[in-house]
Amino acid sequence: MQAWRVHRNGEPGEVMRREEVDRPVPGDGQVLLKVRAANINFPDALLCRGQYQVRPPLPFTPGVEICGETEDGRRVIATPALPHGGLAQYALADEAALLPAPEALDDAEAAALHIGYQTGWFGLQRRAHLKEGETLLVHAAAGGVGSAAVQLGKAAGATVIGVAGGAAKAAVARELGCDVVIDRRTDDIVAAVKEVTGGRGADVVYDPVGGDAYTASAKCVAFEGRIVVVGFASGTIPAPALNHALVKNYAVLGLHWGLYNQKDPAAVRHCHEVLTAYAAKGLIKPLISGRVAFGDAAAAVQRVADGTTTGRLVVLPALTAAPAATEGAAT
């Protein structure tokens, strides 16, 4: 089968190589899946760089989220078992963790549903307890993680303020349903949030960026507000001033969604049922900005690593492109 593999750590466009390899053999409790679509996530870039919390042995195949097909023809959503990731024609996954792909979504949309929307639902509902009528501030609102939070915030009945970088991404955030959009390149985030909320601030902040985004959030979070820390796409991990949280009476909440798979898998299945119902009602629909040919996967992962994308890039193994003969040839 064809697979993209990483033999040394570095930038995805430089270290990912398309190769002919044997199909992986399932271990105990695992199942072999034909990959119908593989959604690219920022952790795929971190895996290539050797900066992710999980470090599979070299060589490995990245791709942490797929829509796959079982041997009996069922369409499922899975997080592949590394080192046999989803940027391949076949991947391995834990059979007990397979989830049915929603009928309302096609393969690419189903591949982009699991991690981003589960993270959003757990962050907004389980951690922040977002209520109808509250104001939600979403950083990187046009990105893969942020776009999911925008849709889930609207589904919960919140007023959603989206922050995006540049006019093009701001336009995408508006199309997603943001009630207000702030362009961080031209607007003062703190002043804009306070103006929109009459000086009160945002009840809930969803932050997958860190760095300056977190700093701004702490300045415009409301009394009894909640800042949900989802990730650090900016590359800068903030150091919260706890005296500031005390004085302003707000909470800083961490979210590591992967832990729910280990500690509360029933909650993950319940969340999937909720998301499936939302999809059937048209309340959520993953924003797919690109359906990528298999031969262009390395370049696509690099684009996600560089932060130049909106929504999701999804690799479709059935789409072919010229094979990469050497490292970096796909960039």
Explained architecture:
With 331 residues, this protein is α/β, with parallel strands linked by helices. The chain contains twelve helices and 15 strands. It has helices spanning 12-15, 42-49, 107-111, 114-127, 144-155, 167-176, 189-196, 212-220, 242-248, 258-263, 265-281, 297-306; strands at residues 2-6, 16-20, 30-39, 66-69, 75-78, 90-94, 99-100, 135-138, 159-164, 180-183, 202-207, 221-229, 251-254, 288-293, 312-316. Strands 3, 4, 5, 6, 7, 14 and 15 form a seven-stranded mixed beta sheet that branches. The longest helix has 17 residues, at 265-281. The radius of gyration is 20 Å and the shape is globular. The two termini are 22 Å apart. Mean pLDDT is 94; it is low at 322-331.
Q: What value does the average pLDDT take?
A: 94
Binned, the helix content reads 25-40%
Question: Which structural category do the helix and sheet elements fall into?
Answer: alpha/beta
Any low-confidence stretches, pLDDT <50, length ≥5?
322-331
What percent strand?
Answer: 15-25%
Series of H and E elements: EHEEHEEEEHHEHEHEHEHEHEHHEHE
In whole angstroms, the N-to-C terminal distance is: 22 Å
- The dominant shape is globular
Number of strands: 15
Largest sheet: 7 strands, mixed
Radius of gyration: 20 Å
Count of helical regions:
12
Which properties best describe this structure?
six-stranded parallel β-sheet, 24% strand, 331 residues, alpha/beta, single chain, globular
